[in-house]
TrEMBL record, chains A, B:
Gene behind the chain: pheA
Keyword Lyase attributed: yes
Limits of the Prephenate dehydratase domain: 3-182
Native source organism of the sequence: Saccharopolyspora griseoalba
Span of the signal peptide: none
GO MF, one annotated term: prephenate dehydratase activity
EC number assigned by the record: 4.2.1.51
Pfam families: ACT, PDT
Organism placement in taxonomy: Bacteria, Bacillati, Actinomycetota, Actinomycetes, Pseudonocardiales
Name of the protein: Prephenate dehydratase
Amino acid sequence: MPEIAYLGPPGTFTEQATRRLTADFEADLVPYEGVPVALAAVRSGEVLAAGVPVENSVEGSVPATLDALTVDDPLVAVAETMVPVQFDVLARPGLELSQVNTVASHPHALAQVRGWLGENLPKAEQHAVASTAAAAAAVANGEFDAAISAAVAREHYPSLVRLEHGIADVADAVTRFLLVRKPGALPEPTGADRTSICAVISDEVGTLADMLAELSLRGINLSRIESRPVKDRFGHYRFFLDFDGHVADTRIGEALAALKRRCSTVRFLGSYPKADRKPGYVRSAASEQAFDKSARWLEAVREGRLA
Amino acid sequence: MPEIAYLGPPGTFTEQATRRLTADFEADLVPYEGVPVALAAVRSGEVLAAGVPVENSVEGSVPATLDALTVDDPLVAVAETMVPVQFDVLARPGLELSQVNTVASHPHALAQVRGWLGENLPKAEQHAVASTAAAAAAVANGEFDAAISAAVAREHYPSLVRLEHGIADVADAVTRFLLVRKPGALPEPTGADRTSICAVISDEVGTLADMLAELSLRGINLSRIESRPVKDRFGHYRFFLDFDGHVADTRIGEALAALKRRCSTVRFLGSYPKADRKPGYVRSAASEQAFDKSARWLEAVREGRLA
């Protein structure tokens, strides 16, 4: 059975996400103590793949994930999932909500349920710990009365009692995760795919605008952009881009080739089915048929078959 | 003496940054337990300003800072500083490095000195706690032998002994902080300024490319871009942009007015001196003189003073 790494300790949102990402096959999930270590295990072949947070995570440093994806040997994403930022309140057995005097969680998680805590546990002392999973562990050890945790934490600490399910101040906040592995056969296009790349450009005025024009001219919808300075090259910026479409699509392929000509480095980070399975809108002039038709017309022109 | 908020507990990198940001005036620094609470204190007038992390921080959630800046009443940045991501090793008195068996820090901080720990404290047990400051507090309480902390932490725990200064696996990693306050008179242009905005656009192909073209056409150098989905409006994206120049500059003013026409929302987040004080490169066709000259020429044309 293949082993799949995830950001530990056991019971985190990343474990929950990695279970979804590997739902279609049998796998042993193995916790690692940081994203860089988890990715190193994929690169060395110690594990087959890793589930990692890439957007707005409650735990784990997303910049660290992005950095780790772009150093050393290439890795590519083969699947994505979104996990709602909703928490369970897990307590010591026998306690009711009104008896909870101390509550623990990751500081970002406490911040995300600030309103709920103010309304439901206004007098409870709040304790910040290293992860939502560590909070559940500390409650199981008797250190605190209750933990704000991912739902999956309860499976690791079955003695805990769930006092509330799915709490969140903002109902639709999500965090996004990718399953990454060594390059190989790409996932088949599904018609609702996303492509991720990292591009390095130098600090010349207009270069980014030109880069994005290469996408927009081809009707490609950008779903995310993030810049990060390149550590060892002053004045160079690295851009993480996600856009609708699969590298097998003609418009995506043409755009990537154009970026390859324009940028000092382009790293392909994967084409994979979108978590929401919603086909992106492609305007008719950018469809596969339109590209096919224009290619056949050009061929005819070049061969002198048209006046 | 004015009170200035920062992301606590005392002894964090944000405290270190906020000291720098307030070096020019007398101020009482007051720790707050989260960036949203610190910004709420600025909005309510409880404090004059707040020091907050906005890029790649070791502590505090940068997405949470960006979100908190764009809800509720406007706030603007008036100063920026960069703090190197370098740590001190603070230990219980009497201990030498070779006697350190347990070491504590924020999980992101432990990740950032992974190489150093492997080389210098290969056998020490690592403990993840809620902040680098909490690690120093725990060492002062006798829970662990040593903490990986910001240099400033030692001032709050003077009993601790500094075993190492300025450790870091990557020498030039920095984290960026802003001092934000209620809108009022802007900082004077210095010739080396940065402007920050948040713009909301709908999910139409090409809109971002058009937006960036408004900047690049006017010779404006983008130093950072980050997209965040707008929570309550599906298909809308919020972009955080930082670029060289001051809103008092003609080219920046024109570009901002153009974005205001193009975007559903533009929030001005401040024009302030760049931390590195390096003037950005402005090509001659985008200089104040060139704008002045073209404006005078246009006036003359409109008044019929030129053929």
